[in-house]
Every structure is written in structure tokens, then in C-alpha cells.
Write a structure and sequence with these properties.
Layout lengths: L5 E12 L7 E12 L3 E5 L6 H9 L6 E6 L2 E2 L11 E4 L12 H11 L5 H13 L15 H14 L4 E5 L7 H18 L2 E5 L3 H7 L2 E6 L2 E7 H9 L2 E7 L6 H8 L4 E4 L3 E7 L5 H11 L3 E7 L4 H18 L1
Helix pairs in contact: 2-4, 7-10
Length: about 325
């Protein structure tokens, strides 16, 4: 199968949770997206956005109310559970390991469930042990490991199954900086060398920006952005400004700014005041200057604010929330 083939095709996926005596909750609302083989995709969204529910629907752990899911061209629901041979996952909040088994025994057990047991496969397991720096822990029971070592073992077990599609839900949760960097490097290496398709869901934007080429952002169960990381960052790079003012500033300046520019902030330390604002329209800079002039503000410095994926993510989610409130 070529690298440009479609590994995952989600169409109009919808999931509603019904609870007696309470209002129905639409956790996933008509979600559609595709993932190419060999792609490392980030799945982002605030808490309650529908990320984990979407993943569980794809894995067949939850039955959706509507929509279709194709994995390498085959319908997951029609060919379940056979389709599980193509997918593996590490899910946040789930027991992904048997704690009284050793690292090596866990790898053998979970890979064996997928029928991965040959001599060549065991050589690959040894490769994963080295790749995740688990050599000294291979014969240690998982319950005796640190949180970081448990997390690395969970990811190693998922990858040991040699499935072409892997889901990692908060894979760096509880990891120290060094271990997190190691895991990022491993994921990029595996995607490149083995043409794995990896979907990473995380609140750690540094991880997503480092590992993923493309991101899908969910908000209130809907897709609100689907783009390359570099494009999303560039979209906001020239629109974020920081303006430093000499004190004192007019008492009504903050209200004037926030009423015209949603999300604008004004902070002060008694000597210098700082405005952070996104200027989205071509004439916004002129409007901003008029507001500052009318308030008698004295500008010390104007600069573009450094933009990263986290700032772009927050701005996209904020806009979506404001749009929903205005409907």
C-alpha cells in the first residue's frame, strides 16, 4: 500500500449519550476527516470536546449513533472484531498493562493477542526495548516501575502489535521532560521507518507541534480546524501584537479594547502597561491606534508576538465558543 493511501476515513460520525433523567449529550457531532498512511496526526480539543469518544468509536469500544468509519478501506462495524488487527491504542485513564507481569512479559502477552509471535517479531520487540531505553527494566514487574517507565512500556506494547494504525491518548502524561523528548523522537522515527499511521491526542501542545505534521481541532463535538501545524501557526503569526505603554493609562482603556477586540488583555505593573491583542482584519491596526490616541496612551513599543500552536489552538477554540454564544 502506498504512503499516500488513506489509512482512516471518518464520515459524519455522531455519538449521543442518553442518561435517564438528564438531557441528551451529543459528544460527537457530524465529525468527518481522513488520515493518510504514514501520517502522524494530532487530535486536539478542550476537555469534553469529543476526542476520546471519537477514538473509542473508531476502535469499536463505543457504537456511534450515525456515520461511517473505514480503516484501510474496510468498514469497522461490518468487519468487527477482525478489524482490530489493524489498530492498537494507549488510552488515558485505562489500564493498558498487567502490573504483575514484567515489561517483557507484557510485550509478549499483548502482541500475542494480535498473533504477533514469530522469531522476527521478537527481534522487533528487542528493538523496541532498546528504542525506549527499557533494557534495565525488561524483567521488572510493571507495578514496581515509575510512572514514566509504565507509560513507555504501554506505548511499546501498542507498537509491538505491529498494527499499521496506532492511537496514543495523552502518551506523555506523567513523563519528565527528558523522557517526553525521547518518546517524541521514537514516534517520529517509527512513522518514518515503518510507515505507521499514528494519531496522537494530547493537551501538551509542544508534543503535538514537535511530532505531528497536521492537526484536527475539535470543539463541542465538531471539527473546527483541519490543517497543517505550520499553516495554523503562520495564520496567526502576523496577527498577534504586543503593545507596551507608559503609565498611567486611561481608566476606560481596557473596556474600549476588549469591547472591540475579543480576547484582548491589558496588564500593568504600575510603571509599564502591556496590551496583547489579535488584529484579524486589515484595518484593525488603525482602529487600535485610534483607541489608544483617544485614551491619551503613550506607546513605548509595538511588536509581533511569537506565535506557536498553543496560541493558535486557543484562538481557534475561543472564536468557536464566541460564535456559538452569538447564535
Amino acid at each position: 500500500m502506498s504512503k499516500t493511501a488513506t489509512a482512516l476515513d471518518v464520515t459524519s460520525l455522531t455519538k449521543v449519550f442518553h442518561e435517564r433523567g438528564t438531557k441528551d449529550v451529543k459528544a460527537v457531532d457530524n465529525v468527518s476527516f481522513q488520515v493518510r498512511q504514514g501520517e502522524v496526526l494530532g487530535l486536539l480539543g478542550p476537555n469534553g470536546a469529543g476526542k476520546t469518544t471519537t477514538i473509542k468509536c473508531i476502535l469499536g469500544l463505543i457504537r456511534p449513533n450515525a456515520g461511517g468509519i473505514l480503516v484501510f478501506g474496510e468498514n469497522v462495524e461490518e468487519h468487527y472484531p477482525r478489524m482490530l488487527k489493524n489498530m492498537s491504542a494507549v488510552l488515558e485513564g485505562s489500564r493498558n498493562l498487567y502490573w504483575r507481569l514484567t515489561v517483557w512479559e507484557n510485550i509478549l502477552f499483548f502482541s500475542g493477542l494480535h498473533g504477533v509471535t514469530s522469531r522476527d517479531d521478537k527481534a522487533h520487540f528487542e528493538h523496541l526495548i532498546r528504542l525506549f531505553s527499557l533494557e534495565d527494566k525488561r524483567n521488572v514487574e510493571v507495578r514496581k516501575l515509575s510512572q514514566g517507565m509504565k507509560q513507555k512500556t504501554s506505548v511499546a506494547c501498542a507498537l509491538a502489535r505491529r498494527t499499521p494504525l496506532v492511537f496514543l491518548d495523552e502518551p506523555t502524561l506523567g513523563l519528565d521532560v527528558e523522557t517526553s523528548l525521547e518518546l517524541r523522537a521514537v514516534l517520529k522515527q517509527l512513522a518514518t521507518e515503518e510507515n505507521r499511521t499514528i494519531i496522537v491526542s494530547s493537551h501538551n501542545m509542544d508534543v503535538i507541534q514537535d511530532v505531528c505534521q497536521r492537526v484536527i481541532i475539535l470543539s463541542q463535538g465538531r471539527v473546527v480546524a483541519d490543517n497543517y501545524v505550520s499553516d495554523l501557526v503562520n495564520l496567526f503569526k502576523t496577527k498577534a501584537y504586543r503593545i507596551t505603554l507608559h503609565e498611567p493609562v486611561s481608566e476606560g482603556l481596557e473596556e474600549s479594547l476588549t469591547s472591540r477586540f475579543k480576547g484582548a488583555t491589558l496588564t500593568s505593573d504600575g510603571t509599564i502597561a502591556e496590551i496583547n491583542v489579535n488584529l484579524l482584519e486589515n484595518d484593525d491596526i488603525y482602529v487600535l491606534m485610534d483607541i489608544l490616541r483617544d485614551a491619551g496612551a503613550i506607546i513605548d513599543r509595538i511588536s509581533h508576538e511569537e506565535t506557536d500552536l498553543e496560541k493558535a489552538f486557543l484562538e481557534i477554540v475561543r472564536r468557536e465558543r464566541n460564535n456559538n454564544e452569538s447564535r
